[in-house]
């Protein structure tokens, strides 16, 4: 929601300041400039990126305006999920986990935590690593290395999306200049027209530069930065899960495993030990 509010603030302040100086909004409405700048930006985006990055970037942009940052409640769901899985493992052995990690959408444990269940990256990371541990019982340092490879690969995939947006953002001022130059070329064909006609034509040409710079620094650049923050949040969640799984591979007590994961949560979202303890008691009820 903050991203949507930010869009309105940017537009509102620019238009408001322009009107305060008695500007004419009709001059800023130049469909031809929008076609040139928007079309060139989209074309360069398609040229620069393969299909999978194009699709992923579009989905990521939607997520910027509709998604939520990871909250304390989200991390509590992750911790409570692990607590239940580890208590079950201690009671029934590793075999007791198989039905839950093989079919999480039907699991009585996973279905209690919809935020985890709806995030396929997080869900796959949990289930796949439990599966490999049950199948091979690797040494803790080997298990951690395998997870690091998975996390690095996911990070590389996610990093491609803000990079693609930044590529378009960086090109917008130049594309805006291209639109302005084309406007000047058209203006030169009207050199015999009266000053008011020439002034309007030059103003329309300069709108192209304005739109290019505004699109770069007012919208696409901030969107890419927002997406980097969201990707960082996703990486933090995986690191929290990794901390729990590494502690689990050391055969620590479930309470200690869950607390090790809790300590990997950033301070602003980290539940206190008392909050976690209370949440576990409520979950048991």
Description:
By secondary structure, this protein is an all-alpha fold. The protein has one domain (30-284). Helices cover 81% and strands 0% of the residues. The protein is built from twelve helices and no strands. The mean pLDDT is 91.
Strand content: under 5%
Low-confidence segments, ≥5 residues, pLDDT <50?
A: none
Radius of gyration: 26 Å
Q: How many β-strand stretches?
A: 0
The main β sheet shows up as: none
Percent helix range: over 70%
Which geometry do the CA atoms define?
elongated
Report the structural category.
Answer: mainly alpha
Taken in chain order, the helices and strands follow as HHHHHHHHHHHH
Compute the average pLDDT.
91
Total of helices: 12
Oligomer: single chain
Topology record:
Elements: H1 2-20, H2 25-28, H3 31-48, H4 51-66, H5 72-92, H6 98-102, H7 114-117, H8 120-136, H9 140-188, H10 195-249, H11 254-263, H12 273-284
Helix pairs in contact: 3-9, 4-9, 4-10, 5-10, 5-11, 5-12, 8-9, 8-10, 9-10, 10-11
Key features of this structure:
single chain; 285 residues; mainly alpha; 12 helices; 81% helix
